[in-house]
Design a protein that fits this description.
five-stranded mixed sheet; 9 helices; 9 strands; 36% helix; elongated
């Protein structure tokens, strides 16, 4: 469908301001913070990869998501100084209204897992990712990460096992529905809800998103974890989530994904 070829234009800290763009091509401008060098042990398109050189948005985006960027991109791109830009991002982040009343929930593929934001679904067994105290409701499990807790320790030793036990207790082995809800749109709660969902999808559903009937009555986590877990399996379950909840799962943190991998593959 293109009437002209694509032409990559690499822009590095050493590049001239004149990019010499030609109208004979569709110019694809590629920015990198890495330096252009004549040699190196990790050579990528003439560049040496520098770990942490602005290739990880968690280090420089200040929590800004892609959708928030495009909603306010004109104001963001009009900023001249870095301090002005950071202030504008903080203004955008401060104007985000937490989702606490309105429910926004989606079913993950053909599984019995529902993921979303808002409040617990009445009558549904719900794992609620919150920032407060435990729930007194019988069919609701509150999960939260204390401020001073190490995420790896609290998630692998407490939160994930609690979520698995809750799911088994409330009938996931008998095809009952389980909802995982983040009470608001803060990044920590969204990450936790996605992590718990990946755990349950990996442990209780096969590659087609179906609970294997031959194992439907197994009642222990160890029985379900006899299968060898791989990053490909985990990545596929994460793809299901992104398909159903792209706006919720668009920026799962690398740290959280590593914790999920550690828990499932250990």
């Amino acid at each position: 469908m293109l009437d002209k070829p694509l032409r990559p234009v690499f822009v590095t800290p050493e590049s001239d301001r004149d990019l010499s763009l030609s109208n004979e091509y569709y110019n694809v401008i590629l920015l990198t913070a890495s330096s252009l060098v004549s040699c190196g042990h990790k050579r990528i398109q003439g560049f040496v990869y520098i770990q942490g050189a602005a290739d990880d948005e968690e280090a420089w985006a200040h929590g800004l998501t892609s959708s928030q960027f495009w909603d306010d991109h004109e104001k963001l791109l009009s900023c001249v100084h870095e301090g002005e830009l950071v202030n504008e991002i903080q203004r955008i982040m401060g104007s985000v209204v937490p989702v606490t009343k309105k429910g926004d929930v989606s079913r993950i593929g053909c599984t019995y897992i529902f993921l979303g934001t808002g409040i617990a679904i009445p009558g549904h067994a719900t794992i609620l990712c919150v920032s407060g105290d435990d729930s007194t409701e019988q069919n609701v499990l509150h999960l939260h990460i204390p401020r001073k807790a190490k995420p790896l320790t609290i998630m692998t030793q407490t939160l994930f096992p609690a979520a698995i036990s809750f799911a088994i207790k409330h009938g996931i082995l008998d095809h009952s529905s389980i909802s995982i809800i983040a009470v608001n749109s803060s990044r920590d709660l969204l990450d936790l809800s996605i992590a718990v969902t990946v755990i349950l999808l990996c442990l209780f559903f096969d590659e087609q998103g179906i609970f294997p009937s031959s194992k439907a009555k197994l009642g222990t986590v160890n029985d379900r974890r006899e299968q060898k877990m791989t990053k490909d399996i985990i990545r596929k379950r994460l793809t299901w989530i992104i398909t159903a909840r792209g706006h919720q799962a668009e920026r799962l943190s690398r740290q959280t994904l590593k914790i999920v991998n550690t828990f499932l593959m250990s």
